[in-house]
Inverse folding.
């Protein structure tokens, strides 16, 4: 089988590496000529091709592009009269799902979200094993042909992922809670420290593992994350309001010197422990 | 040299393990009889002793107890007419420094804060190599006898740490920025998700590395952290207010659909990258 990768960055590149390990031929396309060249140099994809060549030659095409262009790229591919299964791997689903719901070839498309990533981006960020033992969400499967869904599910299972099914609406709410708010929390932590702690040497000297792990996501690419927040704005705002409210509870308890309440808040927060991977 | 460890939890236990590797004899005391028994069982300390026995037999005593009792323990030890150097390793310094500033034997005491830790606590949390390649802050050295400071600096360097000097006031402000706010951010993230995401299976399924790393500190022990926040309340409140303000900037930009501003905030936050360990 020949697999096409559209978008050879962190996700597309890592997916290409995983699929190559299964023995498939992997051909890549990227709107950025320099990214595509780099993906070939790094041997992430075996060769570069145009979008129309991918549509003609591949049995499966994985669309791994930013959320603000994914609907357009999927539509272009479907319009090319390809017989390939199109799977897309972007981080939000609501806008995309609505945009393509009534497309005459919608059943050729499978919406997926592999819950894996790092704070890095581009072909150089692609890593072996990124998806292993993680979960992929398959969204709105009632709109995809069963044999297409089955093909996509199989390739995810073959690269070591668990598959769960979910509609696009609850998916977008869940990811606001378990991914998007973590990024805002981390970006804000970085800005707080950078704005107040003018002595950069102090950050470097004193930042221990705790600060590094909570601020790590602040290295993430704004070009990736700005469209994600735009597409999932309403859910992200709900979660952000709740997060600010919880922080305000800590603040009130501190102001009142109510350390029983501070203790109680932390004890309740401890319940997350067994749920973390 | 015989080194005494008062408090055989995460920090005391890990310090004991590091010092044992230097070939010193390590004797332990803990106010919790079960912790002390466990520390001996785990071979973290070679034997258990009373506080007064430690004071009599050790050349160096490391006080590794919660911040709300550290001043009292240091005072007890100094009162015991020991010739030992007393070093303490707690997380905040202002209250302690003031409490003991005029003690007649203050020059026997060295205030330190090794910037290392994990989200776990107790003797079972003690780990080899916790301090290696990390930074220790030596505080208010003008109040310690030079030979005592030198002895403490040497043992930190011998276990692989960098030493920096700082007064207790700026120390407490810096740690509010590079440690305490990270913990509140993480506790609050956990509570936000737990309160809204009632379906625990979703958390477990979907929580990827990003969420896990930002929420990891929410496993931390409230018994350790409540007194830290109490002792450093004013600095923590300043930083928490700033953090909430930054989050409010994200919120305002999202509400106004101003994604150029969202992008700009994230781009500025990216500057933390090269400063992280």
């Amino acid at each position: 089988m020949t697999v096409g990768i559209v978008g050879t960055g962190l996700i597309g590149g890592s997916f290409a590496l995983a699929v190559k390990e299964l023995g498939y031929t992997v051909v890549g396309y990227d709107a950025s000529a320099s990214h595509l060249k780099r993906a070939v140099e790094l041997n992430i994809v075996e060769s570069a091709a145009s979008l129309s060549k991918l549509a003609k030659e591949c049995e499966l095409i994985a669309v791994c592009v930013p959320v603000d262009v994914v609907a357009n790229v999927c539509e272009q591919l479907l319009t090319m009269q390809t017989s390939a299964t199109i799977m897309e791997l972007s981080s939000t689903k609501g806008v995309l799902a609505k945009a393509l719901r009534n497309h005459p070839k919608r059943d050729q498309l499978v919406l997926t979200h592999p819950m894996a990533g790092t704070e890095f981006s581009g072909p150089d960020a692609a890593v072996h094993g990124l998806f292993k033992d993680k979960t992929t969400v398959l969204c709105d499967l009632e709109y995809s042909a069963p044999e297409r869904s089955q093909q996509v599910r199989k390739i995810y299972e073959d690269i070591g992922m668990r598959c769960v099914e979910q509609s696009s609406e609850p998916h977008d709410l869940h990811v606001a809670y378990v991914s998007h708010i973590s990024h805002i929390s981390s970006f804000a932590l970085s800005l707080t420290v950078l704005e107040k702690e003018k002595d950069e040497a102090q950050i470097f000297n004193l930042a221990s593992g705790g600060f590094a792990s909570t601020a790590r996501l602040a290295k993430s690419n704004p070009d990736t994350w700005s469209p994600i927040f735009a597409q999932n704005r309403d859910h992200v705002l709900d979660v952000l309001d709740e997060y600010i409210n919880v922080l305000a509870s800590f603040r009130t308890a501190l102001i009142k010197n109510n350390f029983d309440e501070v203790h109680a808040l932390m004890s309740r927060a401890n319940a997350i422990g067994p749920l973390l991977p």
Notes: The two ends of chain A are 33 Å apart (CA to CA). The beta strands of chain A are 2-6, 25-29, 47-48, 60-63, 85-88, 109-114, 135-139, 162-166. The longest helix of chain A spans residues 168-196. The CA atoms of residues 241 and 247 of chain A lie 10 Å apart.
